[in-house]
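We modelled the chain as a single entity of 117 amino acids. Its sequence is:
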Amino acid sequence: MQTNNNNMSGPGGVWLATGTLLLAAALVFHGPPDADLSVQMQNIAEGHGRWATVHWTAAAALFLIAGASFLNLALNPRVRRSPMLSSAWIVMALGALTTFSTAVAEASVVAVADRPG
């Protein structure tokens, strides 16, 4: 039986799918920001627990997506042979890590802002 190694099957595919589902859930619960910054700040103040959870979920999702990208770069010979594919996967991995840091920063700020005193 011949196997086709052109898709994201295996560990990288599992992590990519898990990260994608978590990120989709985080985006649904995050919702669009309000155009009025004072209204947005009030929404965050009233639902700080939800905002922290959404941002930590997004951070975990982006971490999984970055890991899946690096796994695909390391394990998929087809990707390593193609400069366009390998550059696309590295851009996705680095973009996910950059956005991961933003999600962690936002979750941390909301957690600190919630503390009394």
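As a brief sanity check on the tokenised model: Helices lie at 11-30, 37-46, 48-75, 77-81, 83-114. DSSP finds five helices and no strands in the chain.
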